[in-house]
Amino acid sequence: GGVAIAVGLGVTAGWWVGLAAFAVLAAWWLATARHGDGDALLPAAAPVAGIAHCAPFAPLIAGFVYAPVHAAIAGGLSAITTILVAAATGGARPLLRPGWEWVFTPWRSGVGLDRFLDALADPGLILIPVSWALAAMLCSLACGRGSRLWALAGVAAGLAVMAGSFAVWDLLAHDGTMLALAAIDLGVSAALMAAVVAAGSPPPRDD
Q1: Reduced to 3 states, what is the DSSP secondary structure of residue 175?
Q2: What is the average pLDDT value for the chain, to the nearest integer?
């Protein structure tokens, strides 16, 4: 999955962008993910989830399944891959929704290097990976209690953190649209997590 993202970014935004993405994902995999239990899949899956308006599901499900540190890393990297793919495919702000054509024809869906860099120029974007990492960690800490009630509390805390980051972005940019634009993605992700929690308690783990 990570290789596919790196190659796609290289085709759509520039070879050095793809190379940088591959280096980051490879370093993470060599350091921790290859010893994990599937958390390495989330950064690759998050951009695809973004096409379905549910990219914020990635940090929440990471918190539901994995220990806090692994969940936080997976959540933060999921945000970064989603942003990069959305920027490379002409996704609208706040870069949570990559263009769906990228999955099928990445060589045709790129916007070029200049537009890619322009999309990443907004300093408010840094709030997304930071908040997703924090959301995943808070969700994980709550889910570590092993009950549905605590899991719902963790999901609510994670959603609040992510929603708060868009609200802060609005305040800093004097914009007022970021939270509204992200509302559908947050809502769909909340519904998916409600279904996950209804299906069963968080899996046992040794944090």
Answers
A1: coil
A2: 84
What pLDDT digit, counting tens, does each position of 58-75 carry? 999 999 999 999 899 899
Q: What is the DSSP letter of 174?
A: T
SS3 151: helix
Unique residue bearing structure tokens 């520039």: 14
How far, in whole angstroms, is CA 63 from its chain's centroid? 12
Is-contact 85 100, C-beta < 8 A? no
Q: Are 18 and 6 in contact (CB under 8 A)?
A: yes
Mean pLDDT along residues 11-29: 61
Task: Specify the pLDDT at position 153.
Answer: 97
| Angle separating helix axes 57-65 and 42-51, nearest 10 degrees | 140
Q: Estimate the crossing angle of helix 127-143 against helix 57-65, to 10 degrees.
A: 30
Residue keyed to tokens 């995999």:
29
Phi and psi angles of residue 120, each rounded to the nearest 5 degrees, phi first: -90, 0
- pTM of the shown model: 0.83
CB 79 within 8 A of CB 59: yes
